[in-house]
Every structure is written in structure tokens, then in C-alpha cells.
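Quick one, C-alpha cells below. Sequence please?
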């Protein structure tokens, strides 16, 4: 849709995504092809020189993938979308395009485990340095900035602690120091938070989570605020070869059509569950941005359009009690990942963040007893009843 910017976000999720439609299909066609036929040798040469924007080869571009890229770029208020095979492909494309030998990155201490592990264990082998701080504190970020700092990498709400980072303040700080700000927006999706509107330069997603939302696809997306940075990241993705597949793109487009109603339902469920857990005598603490007890509840209200459906909590009995709970829930599924229609429960210290060092986990607030709960769209009474029966056994 050409004028989609004028429509509300729910309408754009349903009608957005640019694609040529000669046969008038109601959905985006799947161009399941690796290569595209040129009209003539001259046409082929023009496609390669950029004089003609015709399709060449699916790693470089594909109409189904392009429909998804334009859809998510529009939802994020960005100039360009770059689809990737997974969220981690997006992370590594960003690291490789924006950081060189001798450069330094400042990052949130509580980030998706592998985003940190790949930087500390592998990009460090190529001379890229990194420091991890509690980015909820602007002072801590300031203290970590060095003359060679190039990227400020933020995940908010943080994974899995649910700490909130002030995106506007961070963008200003990054730009004052000549750094680019990158935001992992996986936990929110553009429905709840649009970091580019708050000054970020690059935003990315594991679309495996909320955007696709049905636990049946692994996929990633990078969106940039300006076109030049978009071209730089796009050519890095193309040469790394971590492109998306057309069928994968179709599935994510289909998932995004219901993103709004899925999030509305799951966050309404999450609010009730967080309140239930907070009042339960066996629960030590609950972190959910929608609870007034969350230390950055006001900031969450300011920069998010809703509080999302991710909850972290710890039982009074610590890790042992947490394991009893995870082994006895019957509606929630014991599995990593998040943001799907089904409720998931997992233990970050031994699962998603197991490769992060014990010291780093402690500093990031990832305690041994922390349980992460991703709320789905089931009937909330069933989810609370499920927790209730499992907590009786703790
Ligand atoms: C899952 C996840 C990733 C990695 O994405 P994949 O699609 O699994 O490669 C990155 N960041 C966050 C916050 C995630 O939850």
C-alpha cells in the first residue's frame, strides 16, 4: 500500500508491505526462486550496475522478502529493512558492519546470552573490544565510553531481568560521543516500542519471537533510520549470505497480520499474572514493567505503548523451588524462546544464558533462581490455575 504511513499501526500491519500484484492476489505471493530471468544481456548488466532495480538473485533480493522488509521498516518508522535468516544473523551482520579491529562497543549487561557470547568469545579474536554495564544507569554507560567506542548496544526491556533503559537519553549520549545506537527490540516489537523514533540508528529483531509469533519460524530483521546505513548493512548481509528464504518471509508476513491483537491479549494476561505472582506467598520478587513496583515503571510508561508479556520472577525457595514449578506446569510449555501464542517457561541461568560466565550473570542480575515466563494468549484463568497447582507442590 503506497499511502500506508497515514494509517494506524494495526491497519499497516494488515495492509502494509510493498509488492507488485499483477494478478490481484489478496496475500503476498511466494516467489520461491533462487534466480530471476533478465529481459536481455543489457538488462542484466543494468540490474548489476544499479541503473535498473530488477531482481537478480534471491540472496540479493526477492519480492516476497522485500514485502516483509518494507512492512517492518514502515512499522519501525525506518528507511530500510534487511531481512536475515535468524536474529543472530542480524546481530552478527550489525557487529561486522559497524565494528572494526580496535573498535569498542558498550552494551547492556543483561542481553540475549548469545549476543554477548559471540562478541566476547569470537569478535574479540578479531580485535573488537566490548564492555557490559547496567544500561538502566546513564552514569554507568558514560563511565564505560572510551575514545574508540563506536556502538552503544541496548536491549530494553533487558533479557531476562526486565530492566528498562532510557532510549532517548542513550541516543543523545551515543551521538554526543560519535557513536551509533543499536537496539534489540525483540521483547517489544514495533507495536509497543519504536526506538528509531527515539533517536536510535539501527533496530533489529529476532522475528522468531513476537513478529512471527507462532513458534514455527526462525528469522531476523534489521531496520535503519537512514538509507546510507541501510545500504551498508544490506551489502554486509548479502556478502555474509545470511539472507532469509521466501517461504520464511511469507510466514512472518502472515504472523505480523495478527501482531496487534496477539500483543493486546498476551499483555492483558501478563498484567493479571504478574499481579497474581506478586501477591503469592511463595514468590520472592516479580519484575514486570506494568507493575507499579517495577523500579522503572514510569520510564516504561513513557517509552513503551504497553508493558508487553514477558515476566521474570524468583520463588522464595530459589532454584530448587523454580525447578519444581517448571517441572509441574501443564498449560505453559517448558521451552526457551518467547513471544508466541503459547505460554513458555524457562530457566535463563541454565538455559538461554548458560554460556554467559557466572561472574557476568551475577553482575547482570541473572540470579540462579530467576524464572522467565513468556505469556501467551490462552485463557488467563487457565494460566493462573496452572501456576497455582504447580506452586502448591513447591
Ligand atoms: C531469540 C533472541 C535473539 C536471537 O534470535 P534467533 O532468531 O534465535 O537467532 C536475539 N535477541 C533476543 C532478545 C532474543 O530473544
Amino acid at each position: 500500500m503506497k499511502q500506508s504511513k497515514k494509517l494506524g499501526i494495526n491497519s499497516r500491519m494488515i495492509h502494509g508491505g510493498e509488492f507488485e500484484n499483477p494478478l490481484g492476489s489478496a496475500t503476498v505471493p511466494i516467489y520461491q526462486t533462487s534466480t530471476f530471468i533478465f529481459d536481455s544481456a543489457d538488462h542484466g548488466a543494468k540490474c548489476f550496475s544499479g541503473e535498473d532495480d530488477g531482481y537478480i538473485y534471491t540472496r540479493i533480493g526477492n519480492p516476497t522478502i522485500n514485502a516483509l522488509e518494507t512492512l517492518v521498516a514502515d512499522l519501525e518508522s525506518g528507511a530500510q529493512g534487511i531481512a536475515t535468516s535468524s536474529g543472530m544473523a542480524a546481530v552478527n551482520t550489525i557487529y561486522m558492519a559497524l565494528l572494526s579491529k580496535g573498535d569498542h562497543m558498550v552494551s547492556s549487561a543483561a542481553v540475549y546470552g548469545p549476543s554477548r557470547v559471540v562478541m566476547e568469545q569470537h569478535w574479540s579474536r578479531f580485535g573488537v573490544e566490548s564492555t557490559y554495564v547496567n544500561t538502566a544507569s546513564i552514569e554507568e554507560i558514560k563511565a564505560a565510553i572510551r575514545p574508540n567506542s563506536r556502538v552503544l548496544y541496548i536491549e530494553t526491556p533487558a533479557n531476562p531481568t526486565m530492566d528498562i533503559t532510557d532510549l532517548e537519553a542513550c541516543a543523545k549520549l551515543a551521538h554526543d560521543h560519535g557513536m551509533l545506537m543499536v537496539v534489540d527490540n525483540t521483547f517489544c516489537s514495533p507495536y509497543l516500542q519504536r526506538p528509531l523514533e527515539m533517536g536510535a540508528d539501527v533496530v533489529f529483531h529476532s522475528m522468531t519471537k513476537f513478529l512471527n509469533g507462532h513458534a514455527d519460524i526462525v528469522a531476523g530483521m534489521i531496520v535503519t533510520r537512514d538509507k546510507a546505513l541501510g545500504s551498508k548493512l544490506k551489502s554486509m548481509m548479502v556478502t555474509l549470505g545470511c539472507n532469509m528464504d521466501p517461504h520464511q518471509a511469507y510466514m512472518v508476513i502472515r504472523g505480523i497480520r495478527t501482531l496487534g491483537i496477539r500483543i493486546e491479549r498476551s499483555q492483558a494476561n501478563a498484567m493479571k499474572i504478574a499481579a497474581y505472582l506478586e501477591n503469592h506467598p511463595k514468590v520472592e520478587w516479580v519484575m514486570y514493567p506494568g507493575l507499579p513496583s517495577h523500579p522503572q515503571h514510569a520510564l516504561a510508561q513513557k517509552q513503551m505503548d504497553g508493558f508487553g508479556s514477558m515476566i521474570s520472577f524468583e520463588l522464595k525457595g530459589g532454584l530448587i523451588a523454580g525447578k519444581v514449578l517448571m517441572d509441574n506446569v501443564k498449560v505453559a510449555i517448558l521451552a526457551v524462546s518467547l513471544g508466541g501464542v503459547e505460554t513458555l517457561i524457562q530457566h535463563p541461568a541454565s538455559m538461554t544464558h548458560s554460556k554467559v560466565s557466572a561472574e557476568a550473570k551475577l553482575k547482570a542480575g541473572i540470579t540462579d533462581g530467576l524464572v522467565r515466563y513468556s505469556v501467551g494468549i490462552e485463557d488467563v484463568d487457565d494460566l493462573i490455575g496452572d501456576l497455582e497447582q504447580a506452586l502448591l507442590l513447591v
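The chain has 14 helices and twelve strands. The first strand starts at residue 80 and ends at 84.
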